[in-house]
Amino acid sequence: MRNRAAYMVTPGKMEIRELPMPQAQPGEVVLKIEYVGVCGSDAHFFESGMRKGKAFDLPFILGHECAGTVTQVGAGVQNVAVGDRVCFEPQITCGVCPECRSGRYNLCKDVRFPSVPPYDGMLRDYAAIPAHLAFKLPDNVSSLEGALIEPLAVGLSAASRGDVTLGQDVVILGAGCIGLLTMMACKARGAGRVIVSDLFSKRLDKALELGADAVIDASTEDTMARVTELTEGRGADVVFETAGNSHTAAETSDLVRRGGVIVFVGNINGETPYRFMDLMYKEGEIRTIYRYHNNFPTAIRAVSTGRIDVKAIASHQFDFQNVQEAFDAALYQRQDVVKAVIKL
């Protein structure tokens, strides 16, 4: 058996090499990886070669959204068996810090997250992973859908942080993968009206296809005026910033209703001017999310029961040998590519 891996060798360039086959240590399983999604963070690292303003060591393996089949189990593993199809929750935490012990392990300061430097990711044929982070997929959930459980977990976490409930008006700024999954999570929780804003018409068409009640083309329309119109002057109960853009972040205080909630989901780098007094007059609340915790089983059930059609997010598929093309598309065709997925 071969264990190919896609290495980022310089910023913007991929090269396929071979790795030794992994062996399952106690508490681990070896996964034959079948699908890997290209995350926005992968695209950022691929383009810049930087993390937190510093260059990271190359070559490096990207990718953390994945699913596949267990081919080997280590000593003591009981939750999965050889032949099981699983998805991987890629947060390898210490398990003993106050955050881990409280259940908020996504905040563990010693987390090892594959594809975040210096920890190599999952764009390879085989990888050994902790068994407790392998979640079995039901027969009616494909491995492609399994690879999308990880970004769905982000959307579910966002909707949960926003406390979205039945009948509420929700605004989502940004119709990329995470924005659309947040929208679908809000709809699954019973949101009454979900309004999605973006600069690209094709993404807005996708939002409508997946269940948005209204869309706003921010390249030609006044987002605040349209939200005011659509909500009969009240503003949104919950506003999600998923674009990771300082401009959309700054306008959230204009869009939320009095006593409403703003959730920052996107990665906003640098300084962002914000009119806090406007939000104070409304007694609005700002919340944030960082990844997710304890919701992979919920995400899997949402897909298995048909509540969320996660596979509709996978707009473009690429074979493994075309990994360079996949990353180029994710970077330079953002108006068309909602989610690039690589098949191994």
From TrEMBL:
Q: Which InterPro entries match?
A: ADH-like_C, ADH-like_N, ADH_Zn_CS, ER, GroES-like_sf, NAD(P)-bd_dom_sf, SDH-like
Sequence ranges assigned to domain Enoyl reductase (ER) in this UniProt record: 12-342
Cofactor dependence is on: Zn(2+)
List GO molecular-function terms, semicolon-separated. Answer: oxidoreductase activity, acting on the CH-OH group of donors, NAD or NADP as acceptor; zinc ion binding
Kindly give the Pfam families that the UniProt entry links to this protein: ADH_N (PF08240), ADH_zinc_N (PF00107)
Keyword check for Glycoprotein = no
CDD domains in UniProt: sorbitol_DH
Keywords assigned by UniProt? Metal-binding, Oxidoreductase, Zinc
Q: Which PROSITE patterns match?
A: ADH_ZINC
Name the protein family: Belongs to the zinc-containing alcohol dehydrogenase family.
Q: What is this protein called?
A: NAD(P)-dependent alcohol dehydrogenase
> What is the species of this protein?
Dysosmobacter welbionis
